[in-house]
Amino acid sequence: MEEYLTTVFELFISKGKACKRSGFSLTLLAMETAEVSPIIAEKCSDILENWRLLLADGLFDRNLPEDVCNPISEWLFTSIQGALTANRIHKDEAFLLNIKTSIKFVATSSPESLREIFSRPDEDEIIA
Question: What is the model's pTM?
Fold first, then answer.
């Protein structure tokens, strides 16, 4: 599990290096064009969502319980986007190290712990 998640993370880092820019380019493009060209932002969002779904499928293929695959992929994918973007803005590797810690957390947690942490709240509960 840890190897798979680390490979996914390193893929995004290497892609940024190959393009001579760090960060999560699609996220930044979507943010920059949201008001000017909503269709571009929407297409970027669609691509990002497809990648996130592939991550969820990969988690399931690595024997994570089905009911936590989507919440974990949402959390991890959002964390990776944020870390790469923050790393680009602040030029601080600490953001990237946080993702490696998150990967270890998911990889070493029991299915029961992951369910407890990532189960969806009741719909009546207010989320801030």
Answer: 0.80
